[in-house]
Amino acid sequence: MWYDRQVVTAAVCMADNRVPSFLIGLGVGVAIGLLAAPKRGVETMDDLRKTAEEGKDFVLRSSRELRDVAEQALEKGQDVVDAQRASLESAYRAGMDAYRQASGEHL
User: Fold this and answer.
1) pLDDT in tens, 40-95
2) Cβ of 44: how many Cβ atoms within 10 Å?
């Protein structure tokens, strides 16, 4: 029984210490990153800004290309639907004409 209480107590203490430990580790990592950075802060910010602009341009260009492809697919789909509609209308008229001739109706 004593062992179980000790394990539970240790687990609770570990859970309580995780957040502060994470924050300390985060701070240490940021500090090391700033000290070990190959460029000055201004240069790094310029690089980040340039990379963000390139990413934005890529997303805009890709979205335009995707929109163009979607529009082309929509147009092709509409052409197929129109062709099917014309084919069905023609078949319907031919069937109605055949029915009228067979039944003797002349409308």
Assistant:
1) 778 878 888 898 899 889 999 989 999 999 999 999 999 999 999 999 999 999 99
2) 13
**Angstrom distance (rounded) from CA 47 to CA 76:** 43
DSSP classification of residue 107: -
CA-to-CA distance for 55 and 51, rounded, in angstroms? 6
Model confidence, pTM:
0.45
In this structure, the number of other CB atoms found within 10 A of the CB of residue 93 comes to: 10
Q: Which residues contact 41 (CB under 8 A, 6 or more apart)?
A: 34
- Taking 3-state DSSP, the helix, strand and coil percentages for the chain, each rounded to the nearest 5, stand at 90, 0, 10
